[in-house]
């Protein structure tokens, strides 16, 4: 049996204000065609199905289209919730999708293993593998907070609870079918994972990353949350599949792929995902960037998106006008222009200022306090309050 592992689709994402619907439609069509041609029995989507907890209607429609098209070619689908996903949104169609061989796992199963252990069968009805289907484990679902706990105690308590849950399901799977491969899932950061700009930290303030040593010896571990395809440590069978296409400009260096796990051969292969939309980063002086733009070539269906970094402290407004003139009737769109951070100053005597993209919220607040000439003691107190509020906002966003 072949299992295709993918993750972090982020349906409904807007990329700097631009919809990714075109890429996601192309992705669904490519995936279904690949599954049909290569004898894939199950697709495992390891979290972050949607980009937000309130996905737009077209994103939900595309999710259901994926499920229906896979069902038509008799391919199963296992979906686990990620930190971006709303449990209630995924649960809305969970019962209905179960009738077409789609298993949706949104929360830990404490009372019974029925919702957490999935037995995969081939076309002849033979059971080929057991999946310990584990979604993103939210702290509030795993531990009961106690007054007066330190951050270290909270971290240790959460890590211990996650470890116990994984071990419990693994032991159940081993007891029920000791000779079958056991596949684990997860949506979290393992030590050694590389984060990108498009990813939010999870377990804010308590657990930044989990050590691979705390998990049981799964034959394959299908992970989500890290957008770069990579293995965990030196274990080729524990993998992040990565996102299907770049979710931010800083993900351009990694080639996007899906992982294929063969239960019979106990082997893992990577399949490269086609590029559905070109994203490019250009950097240099004003004259160099203008020349690079003039030399751009593009033949794909979708408009290419550009990020420009200029190495001079110039008037960006006039520069943007020059770029716009060069891109008239050409299949390119500039989504971001920024100065190289080493030449950025918050405020200059000649009136040049940094853009908001160059500054963090704390930078902006500090600049505001300076402009208002707030008394130092009051400014320190306000900064502390602002930092507290910013942390709370980060926690609410995960």
TrEMBL record:
The keyword Nuclease applies. GO terms for molecular function: 3'-5' exonuclease activity; endonuclease activity. The keyword Hydrolase applies. One of its GO terms (biological process) is DNA recombination. Pfam families: Metallophos (PF00149), SbcD_C (PF12320). InterPro entries: Calcineurin-like_PHP (IPR004843), DNA_Repair-Maintenance_Comp (IPR050535), Metallo-depent_PP-like (IPR029052), Mre11_N (IPR041796), SbcD (IPR004593), SbcD_C (IPR026843). Keywords: DNA recombination, DNA replication, Endonuclease, Exonuclease, Hydrolase, Nuclease. Belongs to the SbcD family. This is Nuclease SbcCD subunit D. It comes from Marinomonas piezotolerans.
């Amino acid at each position: 049996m072949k299992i295709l592992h993918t993750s972090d689709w982020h349906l409904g994402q807007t990329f700097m204000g631009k919809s990714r619907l075109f890429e996601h439609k192309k992705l669904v069509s490519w995936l279904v065609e690949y599954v049909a041609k290569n004898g894939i029995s199950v697709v495992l989507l390891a979290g972050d199905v949607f980009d937000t907890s309130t996905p737009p209607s077209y994103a939900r429609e595309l999710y259901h289209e994926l499920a229906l098209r896979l069902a038509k070619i008799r391919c199963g689908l296992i979906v686990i919730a990620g930190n971006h996903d709303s449990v209630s949104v995924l649960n809305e169609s969970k019962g209905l999708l179960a009738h077409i061989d789609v298993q949706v796992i949104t929360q830990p199963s404490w009372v019974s293993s029925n919702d957490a252990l999935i037995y995969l069968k081939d076309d002849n009805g033979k059971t080929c593998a057991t999946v310990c289907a584990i979604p993103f484990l939210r702290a509030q679902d795993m531990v009961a907070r106690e007054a007066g706990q330190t951050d270290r105690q909270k971290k240790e308590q959460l890590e211990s609870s996650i470890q116990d849950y994984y071990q419990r399901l693994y032991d159940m799977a081993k007891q029920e079918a000791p000779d079958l491969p056991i596949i684990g899932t997860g949506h979290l950061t393992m030590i050694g994972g590389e984060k990108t700009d498009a990813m939010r930290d999870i377990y804010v303030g308590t657990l930044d990353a989990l050590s691979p040593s705390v998990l049981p010896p799964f034959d394959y571990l299908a992970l989500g949350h890290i957008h770069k395809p990579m293995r965990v440590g030196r274990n080729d069978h524990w993998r992040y599949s990565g996102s299907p296409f770049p979710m931010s400009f800083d993900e351009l260096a990694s080639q996007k792929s899906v992982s294929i796990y063969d239960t019979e051969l106990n082997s893992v292969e990577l399949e490269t995902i086609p590029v559905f939309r070109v994203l490019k980063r250009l950097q240099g002086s004003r004259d160099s960037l203008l020349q690079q733009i003039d030399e751009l070539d593009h033949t794909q269906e979708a408009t290419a998106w550009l990020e420009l970094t200029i190495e001079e402290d110039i008037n960006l407004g006039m520069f943007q006008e020059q770029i716009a003139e060069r891109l008239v009737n050409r299949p390119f769109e500039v989504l971001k222009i920024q100065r190289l951070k080493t030449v950025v100053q918050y405020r200059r005597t000649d009136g040049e200022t940094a853009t908001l993209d160059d500054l963090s919220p704390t930078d902006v607040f500090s600049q505001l306090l300076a402009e208002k000439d707030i008394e130092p003691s009051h400014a320190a107190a306000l900064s502390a309050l602002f930092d507290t509020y910013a942390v709370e906002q980060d926690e609410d966003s995960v």
